[in-house]
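Can anyone check this?
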Amino acid sequence: MSAATRPVTLAHDTFGDPADPAVLLVAGFGAQMISWHEDFCRELAAQGRYVIRFDNRDCGRSTKFDAYPVDLGEFVAAVNARDIEAAKAMVPYRLGDMAEDGMRLLTALGIERAHVVGASMGGMIAQTMAIEHPDRVLSLTSMMSSTGEPGYGDSTPEAQAALFAPRPADREGYIASADRELVWASRRYGDVAALRELAARSYDRGHCPAGTARQLGAMILSGDRAAGLSALTVRTLVIHGLDDTLIDPSGGRRTAQLAPGARLFLVPDMGHDRPRELWPTLITALTRHTATRSTL
């Protein structure tokens, strides 16, 4: 069975009343669904939304593609050498497959259409959902993400180094290494204890470093979404933190520029994270955008 036809099982949970409008939360690169904190999900559900979060493939407790190991060094070397065919042969899926996973989850839950909210790589997946499945997407929120085009949303050298530096395999070392994420966290609200807590929960719940190489390959090989975003018919909100050093705010600005009628919400004091102090701001924005008429 090829990777393209392999069944995928997605770990997920829900918050709120299934009779309320559905909001599908899509996690970022290497991030489990618990990166959408359960308290955040409960507060959003309390605004009259049926909130769904899930682990992307190759992450957490969802299906792993371990039969397709990716040597990250070889993959990056192939991309840098512009040997795209060799790079494609290494990676078993693309962002479109990950977007399809989310649509199948909605179908399994009996949901015809949902508001889709994605953060970072999850924003790329959410954009792909809106482009490829507009009949299933009530609205799109792209958060701290970009379009895939060169020159937009670039990382600072420090943030890129922190992202790709190998993390220790042992539990204690892995948890301690979460401190490096302060480089892209909100400067005002950066919280080492919260970073370490999430790292510990993620390690214990479903640590899968091999999966991140495949997810990275999917992002790189999926190309840019400029044409699809320019033709988008889905109501779009773009949220980006002005402190973001992992995906520069130019990524959000470009997304809003391309998507017809998109609203751009640049958040002061927000980096590449969702600190608890900013939850009221973000939840208000999401509640308004997912209402029948957006008033943001």
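Reply from J.R.: I decoded it. The CA atoms of residues 78 and 87 lie 6 Å apart.
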